[in-house]
Design a protein that fits this description.
alpha/beta, 12 helices, seven-stranded mixed sheet, 47% helix, disordered N terminus, 7 strands, 14% strand
């Protein structure tokens, strides 16, 4: 059984997206984005007044310097727990804590701003306990740096306007919060070697993206593997696909064929893709070899 076109499109592996959000959900998404940008600016001002660098704040808050930078620029969503923690670290005297309820509400509304054709998959991904991704075209959205994501959307044809590019980059980076909660889902990513050789966005962006892959590949919850180009067998030349196991539900699969997205729930089709993923996994380099 295939449910409509629930493709990842703007938010994940590919770039296709023809659906548009409207009404209250869209307004809620825009309002949330404004709130998160305002919070980011406040955090930056408080940090600079305290004479603390982004790196120092990241260490104190047990997160990366890149995350602090992204939050301050409004491209990553500050979690309520983060706001409470940083409030004390920067001596905000409750100013940031006071915004936690609004942040929770805005996050809830933001989850509904995805186009209707995407929401089925978005809900499944958010509830996933296991997420397996194979891609032979580009770095998966969950692993992309801001620079790589911006290059992907900037290069899209027909061209997107700057506001749309920034909104889609922010949405894509927001999905990467899947790595932050504990217990975390179990992630498996298999990338074709060609993906690592393709310098999307230029060499500086490419270098930063490779460093990002190295960092995520060392997480205990992430298994990152590379499928070498010299393999004589390749069981999935058809393109990327993602087997997903939501909490308390049966495994489903998402795939794109020439950018046309499908969410597959039929047991037999899902079983075939799951077996295919296992074969690719066995033929790919082991995680340690892949990172090397």
């Amino acid at each position: 059984m295939t449910i409509g076109h629930a493709g990842e499109g703007w938010y994940g592996h590919g770039e296709r997206g023809t659906g548009r959000t409207a009404g209250a959900a869209d307004r809620g998404g825009r309002d949330g984005a404004h709130l998160f940008r305002a919070l980011g600016k406040q955090i930056k001002v408080l940090r600079e007044q305290a004479g603390v660098s982004q790196k120092e704040l990241g260490i104190a808050a047990h997160c990366g310097e890149d995350l602090i930078s992204a939050i301050e620029r409004g491209v990553r969503t500050p979690q309520p727990d983060f706001l409470e923690q940083v409030d004390g670290l920067l001596g905000a005297t409750g100013v940031l804590k006071a915004a936690t309820d609004d942040a929770r509400e805005a996050q809830s509304k933001a989850r509904t701003r995805h186009p209707e054709w995407y929401r089925s998959y978005a809900r499944l991904e958010a509830d996933a306990v296991q997420l397996y991704v194979y891609n032979n075209q580009s770095v998966p959205g969950l692993l992309q740096t801001e620079g790589y994501a911006r290059a992907v959307f900037t290069q899209r044809r027909p061209l997107l306007d700057e506001a749309t590019i920034e909104r889609r980059v922010a949405d894509r980076l927001a999905r990467q919060q899947s790595f932050e909660p504990w217990p975390s889902p179990t992630f498996s990513f298999i990338l074709d070697e060609s993906v690592l050789m393709r310098p999307i966005g230029g060499r500086a962006v490419h270098h930063q993206q490779l460093r990002r892959l190295l960092g995520l590949g060392r997480l205990r919850t992430v298994q990152l593997q590379v499928m070498p180009l010299d393999r004589e067998e390749q069981p999935s030349l058809d393109g990327p696909f993602t087997p997903v196991t939501p909490k308390g539900q049966q495994q489903v699969a998402y795939l794109e064929t020439h950018t046309y997205p499908r969410l597959i729930t039929g047991r037999e089709e899902v079983r075939v893709l799951s077996i295919r993923y296992g074969i690719i996994q066995s033929q790919a380099l082991r995680p340690g070899e892949s990172l090397a």
